[in-house]
Amino acid sequence: MIEILSTPSLVTVQDLGRSGFYRYGVCRSGAMDRLALAIGNLLLGNDRSAAGLEIPILPLRLRFDVDMNFSLAGADCGAMLGDRPLPPCWAARAKAGDILTLNTPLSGCRAYLCVAGGIDVPEVLGSRSTQLRETFGGIDGRALQKGDRIAAAGNDARLPKDGLGALPPAVALAAAGDGVTVVRVIPAAEYGDYDEASRAAFWSADWKVTGQSNRAGYRLEGPDLALSRMIELRSHGVVPGVIQVPAGGQPIIQLADAATMGGYPKIGVVIDADLWRIAQARPGDALRFVECDMAMAADAHDETEIYLAHLAADVSRQYRLATAWGVA
Amino acid sequence: MTDLDDILACMMAAGLSHLSYSDGRESISMRLDPAAVVSLSAPSAPPATAPETISTASMGRLIFAHPGRPEDMATEGLLVGAGQAVAYVVSGHAITAVVAQEPGTLGRRLREEGDIVGYGTPVFAFAAHG
Fold this sequence. Notes:
B: CATH 2.40.50.100, four-stranded antiparallel sheet
């Protein structure tokens, strides 16, 4: 078991999300940075969809009651296991009594803690993710509190004694641009309804992530986006990545906990392969959009899958070598 | 790389210390360091005296800063705690740590950035405390 000694708000159990229940108004939920969760799981020999903790605000302290393999991925939070500093994107073995401290992120916004076998909570509607708005999934559908005790399902993987890490995705996967967080966007159904100046501004502006940004969506601040004609839409399905523009002209990127339907015009959709970059952008950071199409989005998806497949193979090799050399 | 693992497993099983192979176009040469053999027969035997170096426990390309923290590099004179990483070995997308096994002070570097290292390659001179 793991005992939470101190926690900020909104730490939740998340896996890769819930699919197949949109028709009942149940959103995808799941990790905001699904790539980080997958990396954390692969480092432990877990299925990449095992449940972990999403930690959006730091610091957090917890104590291991038993020896346990765990990993950290996503935001580099200068983690300490006892008095030992841990590298980013790293799996290590904790001894019973060890205290893990996650500090204010050096980079990124959300850290993920994975444990051997995944966090052992019941599946609800095919997922262990916490559905905060509907209060189910995870631990009683709520965020973690001080004193909560969390169990790991466990596995028999023998981690190399000195730990094991992954080449961070920010290094391994080329961003579409330098400096600000650049994400690829496919123009959406109402893109053509925006006036020319607004369409140009959409691609050229640095969009500031405002404080009104959370798991449901990121509200952005930048030039006003104006329609060239008034349009009225019936409510329609909305998926994570959709960029809606409410009447004020300032866009909102819908994310993991977004409502399943909406009626605002959509100017674009952030491709799935870049959603993790948004999850790691903090309030005050700037986002920039670059145009892409379905084929480029599919290539980006493949690039991510290849990275994960190579990581899984390279990690499994390190496990085998460490066992063969007696350093597991 | 899976093939190399298989060759390595065969070498260890058969007690071979050297293997060279060439098909005229490409060639590989593998050498099993005695340190690896010792570790097989005595997996957790502690060193009799304080180690004078910090060595690798895996094979790959040596780097002195983690790719996620390029500015954070262990250098000569640094005081390190037991279990602390002082360099890294990259193999594909996996990274392993070169770790101080006890508290002490880092000495000079014994290898260069980017060197290909094997199991048990000394990377830093080391003065253990106490």
